[in-house]
Specification:
Radius of gyration: 37 Å
Strand content: 15-25%
Order of helices and strands: HHHHHHHHEEEEHEEHEEH
Number of domains: 3
Number of strands: 8
Largest sheet: 5 strands, antiparallel
Helix content: 55-70%
Structural class: alpha+beta
Number of helices: 11
Distance between the termini: 129 Å
Length: about 350
């Protein structure tokens, strides 16, 4: 307050009016320039297909007039006589405000560029989406960390000592938040090792679904029933993860039982029926079909084949086609499917009279 009182007494009212006019004029010019530039770039973005103007528009929108106000005050101060300390204070405020504004511009440009890259690759390259999301967060953290260090350095703090002190304090903080850091490093491991990416269908224990988002602490999976399952990254990597999206082909084994009354000649033809039923379907590779066991109420055959696609719906369509073909061939051959039955033989019983 003493500095402001000294400045007030050192200048005439006319000088203060001139300074206020300069400040107001610069603020109005900056506001008009921001408004006009935003409209011009938005109109240009609608007419072109380049990405530069699409990024430039939100960057202009990130301009904060209150951060540019110190620049207008600096210009207006040239019309009056100010104490040396007050001039130095204005210089510091102007530089700090410009640093923060530059960080906002850089942060918004990084965010917009990454959002465009993610949108291009979403549903096509899940690995790139995961990496870009984490790199974007890391880049914004670096921008603000460097801005903070530059501001502290300009304010006269010893940055070297500050960084050293932060290193010692960081050890204590790391011990206190080791679970959070464990999830953070787990997310880094997911990005580098890529056990799964956004869009993969995974099974973790009894839970299953498609990976929607991989964050710094958690991974979100959308289940088949629609609910959102949230896993801690650390706990997730400790679990056994089954990634069905990476499956090249699917091995399928199933059993079919026929009645004990089936003739031996028909039993010998049944493996061939199974082979033909499998080979009749596209995207399959037949492996084997055998009369494998005598069951309690059925003669059991086991069939093994491969579906040459990881898609679950493709597998189900193929299995349905095989089942229908087996049913049709069994009807043609007169082979009966077995179902749970029980026959009771009574020793010494006489046959009922006939006629």
């Amino acid at each position: 307050m003493k500095l402001l009182y000294e400045a007030w007494r050192a200048n005439a009212l006319y000088d203060w009016a001139v300074a206020a006019s300069i400040i107001l004029g610069i603020v109005l010019v900056l506001a008009a320039f921001k408004y006009g530039a935003a409209r011009a770039v938005a109109a240009l973005a609608r007419r072109t297909v380049t990405s530069v103007d699409d990024i430039l528009a939100p960057v202009i929108g990130a301009t904060q007039l209150w951060l540019l106000l110190p620049l207008a005050i600096y210009a207006g101060a040239s019309a009056v006589e100010l104490p040396r300390k007050l001039e130095q204070l204005i210089d510091v405020v102007v530089i700090v405000a410009l640093m923060v504004q530059a960080a906002l511009w850089l942060n918004r440009s990084i965010r917009c560029w990454l959002e465009r890259q993610v949108e291009k690759r979403r549903g096509v390259d899940g690995q790139a989406v995961t990496v870009l999301a984490l790199l974007g967060f890391a880049a914004r953290v670096v921008v603000w960390a460097l801005t903070l260090l530059l501001i502290l350095g300009h304010l006269g703090f010893n940055i070297t000592a500050l960084v050293a002190g932060l290193g010692v304090g960081g050890v204590a903080v790391a011990l206190a938040v080791q679970n959070i850091l464990g999830d953070l490093f787990a997310s880094l491991s997911i990005v580098l090792d890529k056990p799964f990416v956004v869009g993969d269908f995974v099974v973790v224990g009894e839970l299953r679904g498609s990976v929607e988002h991989i964050g710094l602490k958690t991974t979100r999976v959308r289940s088949l029933d629609g609910e959102l399952i949230v896993f801690s990254n650390g706990d997730l990597l400790k679990s056994r993860i089954r990634n069905f999206k990476r499956m090249l082909e699917r091995r399928v084994a199933f059993r079919v039982g026929v009645t004990y009354q089936t003739h031996a000649e028909k039993l010998a033809r049944i493996p061939g029926i199974f082979r033909e039923a499998v080979e009749h379907q596209d995207k399959t590779r037949f492996d084997r079909a055998h009369f494998t066991a005598y069951g309690d109420f059925a003669l059991l055959f086991e069939v093994v084949y491969y579906v040459l696609s990881p898609e679950f719906n493709v597998y189900m369509d193929i299995q349905q086609g095989i089942n229908l073909e087996i049913y049709r061939r069994f009807n043609e051959e007169g082979v009966e499917f077995a179902y749970p039955t029980q026959t009771v033989y009574v020793h010494g019983a006489t046959a009922p009279p006939t006629g």
